[in-house]
Amino acid sequence: MKASTAPVCAPVTRPVSKPADLSALPPIISRMDSVAALTHSTLSMMRASLSLPGIAGIILTVGMAVDANVLIYERIREEIRKGVSPQAAIRAGFEKAFSAIADSNVTTLIAGVVLWVFGTGPIRGFAIVLTLGIATSLFTALMGSRALITLLYGGKRKLTRLSI
Known about the structure:
Distance between the termini: 34 Å
Number of helices: 5
């Protein structure tokens, strides 16, 4: 290793002193899988092929789904810090995160519809995948993610923090 790159690489290669608690990863991974699977199955039903712009649309969709998860979990954390019960924190977290999630998704959905209507070729393919992906992302954020989080954390009485 060159001397000039050692200070940059040192923090990355240093062992972590406290391992992260990864118990909340199953709902996140499950949601990302369901977004991709629902988008892919909808495209299959439309007999649409997946091109490079379509893959870019899926990547953008998954990125927005991750953003929705971050918003939801942060709102739930805020409620837990206030001392609210886990079920009430989950309910309030989803309610408080809904406006931000809906705003970003509806804005992107409008842009996708405009690209779908006025675009041609690869741009239209990107718009179709993006629009379908945003619709499935909204569905999984509001239904699937809430059900999984409630199932995993809702019944626990002494929940003080989430591992996100």
